[in-house]
Amino acid sequence: MTSAPVIPRPAATVLLVRDHPHPQAGRSPVQVFLQQRVTEMAFAAGMTVFPGGGVDATDRPDPHRWEGPEPRWWAERLGVDVELAGALVHAAVRETFEECGVLLAGPDVPADLHGQRADVVARRRSFAEVLAAAGLVLRADLLHAWARWITPAGSARRYDTAFFVAQVPDGQEADAHTTEAVRALWWHPAEALERWQAGEMLLMPPTVRTLQEVAELDESAAVIAAAREREIRPIVPTLRREGDRLVTVLPDNTAFPSTGLPGQPA
């Protein structure tokens, strides 16, 4: 008897970008923030990923603490219903705060929110409660849609993930203070891809493809500009057996071994 496919869980991930001079002249200064997940994680264990995670029950945006495009605008942009669109944006901002301490909010983010961040991570307080207590509003205008990836059918855990990009607000720094990652660093995309090609970094197909796209741009402002022009359609890879290995195949027929190691055209 064939079991029914797992229904993808909504999730959000954020490409934090900044400009930092590359040591080699003529190479793009764009950097992205990447985290290597701990090996105990149920999904993507040991993989290097962008900050993010699943939508949870607390991701209900408060219209009084929201600045920027409204959920209805995001629904049209992402191709989802209004309620889910608001939850995805809320989750993107919450997860970025939880995982790397960057808070996409305003008008003036306090310098020290370590205690509040710990409360949100431990679920002692909701993210909405932290925003309200600090007199802050969620800045949806600081996010820009990049893509939407859906885990292949047949996977034990599936996610329908909205990918966003954002520049780190002035005065804030991304950090590695999360129990979900063993390390977190800023990377020039081309260098991360070189590590992946050498088998020194595990990357999932959506991460590889996103890094390849960002690596072609010459500054973080260009990444934001490109995001505004992108058409967002669900990207649904498929799984295929090749001998004794399972590969993930993208719609353009690029195949990646399911180990997260380098891929090649199929």
UniProtKB/TrEMBL annotation:
The keyword Methyltransferase does not apply. Keywords: Hydrolase, Magnesium, Manganese, Metal-binding. InterPro entries: NUDIX_hydrolase-like_dom_sf, NUDIX_hydrolase_dom, NUDT19. One of its GO terms (molecular function) is hydrolase activity, acting on acid anhydrides, in phosphorus-containing anhydrides. CDD domains: NUDIX_AcylCoAdiphos_Nudt19. Residues 7-209 form the Nudix hydrolase domain. The keyword Magnesium applies. This is Nudix hydrolase domain-containing protein. It comes from Pseudonocardia cypriaca.
